[in-house]
Every structure is written in C-alpha cells, then in structure tokens.
Amino acid sequence: MTASVLAQVSPAAGGPLAYAGTFLLAAGVYSLTAHIAARNVLGDVPIKRALLVGPAPAAISLLLQQYGPLAFVLAIAVDFVLIRYVYRIKARTTALVTFIHIVVSILVLFIVLSAYRLAGTAPT
Length: 124
Fold this sequence. Notes:
The chain is mainly alpha-helical. The protein contains six helices and no strands.
C-alpha cells in the first residue's frame, strides 16, 4: 500500500530530453501568461520582461513537483518577486499582476487539458 502511494506522489519518469521539453514548454506558457497579465494591468509593456519572469515558476514547479502545494506557494512567491523586480512596480500593483498571472495560467491550463481530453474521446 505504501509503495503505491509513493509511486503516485513521485515525479514521472523521463529522460533529460523529456524534462528539458517540459521546462521549455512551461517556461514559454508562463512567459506568455505573465505578459498577458502585465499588459492587462500596466498597459503596453515589452515582452522581453515577461521572458525573464516565466522560467523561474516553470523550474520550481518541475523540480519540486512531488511536493505539490509547497511548489505552488513557492512558485507564486518567486513570481511575485520577479514581477516586482522586472517591471519595477509597487507591491500592491505587483500583487494584482501576480494574481492575474495565476488566473490566466489556470485558464490556459484548463483550456489545453479540456481540449486534450476532448480529442481523446474522438472516434478513430
């Protein structure tokens, strides 16, 4: 019983290429959603700044995936710090951008997973 529970909590097996691909995809999605959040709150901002924000939450969620909620909280905290540093904004505005970043990221994840599950039900 304990072995099966540990197998469900441990990270998925994969080679270095699988981890690199997952990191690059997650970093790209987090950068895109960070840019959408920043544009929503701050107006016209360069996308280069969002490219600095995205990789950190992606790395944290990939490296600490077996810790679940801890990885989520740490990724949000690092996201907050990076948004504040990269965009040079006040803490209250940073909290708003971070909140919108979380919401947009969850919405994108929901849409992609729903499309994946829908495609899985298609007849062959």
